[in-house]
Amino acid sequence: MSARLQRGTANATVTPGGAGILHLGLGSFHRAHQAVYTAAALRAEGGDWGIVGVASRSHRVVDALHAQDHLYAVATISPEGTSLVVPGVHTDSYVAADEPARVVDDLADPRIRIATLTVTENGYSYSNATQHLDVTDPIVASDLRGGDPRSTIGQLARGLQRRAAAGGAPISILSCDNLLSNGSHTEKLVRDFVRELPDAEGADVLAYLDQAVTFPSSMVDRIVPSTTPELTERVTALLGARDDIPVPAEPFTMWAIEDRFAGGRPAWEAGGAVFTDEVGAFEQLKVRLLNGTHSLIAYLGALRGAATIPDAISSPDVESAAAAILRQEYEPSVTAPAGVDIAQYERDLFSRWGNSALGHRTSQVGSDGSVKLGQRIPGPVLHALENGVFPHLIALTVAAYLACVAPPAGFDPGPHAAAMTDPARERLTAVATRDGRDLAARAIVDLQLFGEELSHRTAFVERVGDLLDTIVTRGVDRAIADSLSASDALAPTTR
Length: 495
Description:
It is a single chain. The protein is of the alpha/beta class. The chain is built from 22 helices and twelve strands. It has helices at 28-32, 34-45, 60-67, 100-108, 138-145, 152-165, 182-195, 199-212, 229-239, 279-303, 309-313, 316-330, 342-353, 362-366, 369-376, 378-386, 392-405, 415-418, 425-431, 436-446, 458-474, 476-489; strands at residues 19-24, 50-55, 74-78, 81-85, 90-95, 114-117, 171-175, 213-214, 218-221, 247-249, 254-257, 274-275. Strand 3 and strand 4 (81-85) form a beta hairpin. Helix 6 packs across helix 8, helix 10 runs antiparallel to helix 12 (316-330) and helix 10 packs across helix 15 (369-376). The radius of gyration is 23 Å and the shape is globular.
């Protein structure tokens, strides 16, 4: 058996000095994205920008990092082959559930000048209906009462509270999750938390936020599938050293960032990051065209028995549905950032989805749909309806999502749908009925999974329900055909 990956056995990209970044959410995406950009920045200009990585609950990555000198490989995979890079930018790591007080301590440490986040949309403890902090969430409520915080927003707020009391060194909180206006959204949630504190506690923190804390927005883009045992074996063979936590990733990578950093930043542009005032336009491009279409492919693929996104998109009817939703329903709702060719961007998307060497699973892409779709579909739906165009393919996305995570009694969506995780699965299953319109109304109107405004669009809710009934009674292929036929007609609608 090969010796473990160590700094003496692998050529890491860099050896960082001190730590200047605290990262919450030590998953694969961070390790294949921000860590790679940070390695390029340190290689170009140096600086104390090492990363302390914090996993929420899982020990797997943390234990392996400690055993491997905080090294791992990123495997860039395409049909042409696999290439490896070892970023080497992490200086330490730990599990927040084991050391919750340490998260607050590290956020208060003046040596930490940036806190980055990849905790997924589900990690921000907000209500889709109000877009504000969900103070009824038991974990958030507990964090507000005191003690060591366990929610991400509670950790940020309590860490900034401690930092303010210790002198108020400047810091930036940089969300790298798929949330529209993720910087201002994160700031709003932190301020929501602070405003719930007693006046004597909250006033000083709010003043500190005004003076020395920034929340830049960013857009991140790279497809990073789950690591498989086969990949681990292949990477170990290529490295000549044992790596228990390699990360697979596609060749494409993008990072657009708002350049508002209170305490400085690494030279991420050395790795190709774009600093821009148009982060919102980049976000819409990605969240709607890429992520929104990706969700449709995942749910249709899972219902048709496809294990991976490339398997799903290889079906002509799924590809046609993806092209229609992309060009007819999502594209009209976005404005391309300067210098971005939308037609080329869309061609690249289909190439990325078809990367058969990568094997991105439909169950992974389809997980957490109740939170993801709340970011991806309301704006385009409302835009289409206001312009007299009915978004049949977005309605199909929601119907396929419900069929996957809350299948009516007697309907089997298949193993790939069953493998999807979702925070709303239990609530949806509790209200699931045989009638599609009833389930759609319960999900969209009663539970307001996709926000308050969409809950009033009766025609959209009913169309989702009808397509759900079609999936259950006549099959997903028929639902695709019906949606494409209606979409091609582009009939005006009544709001």
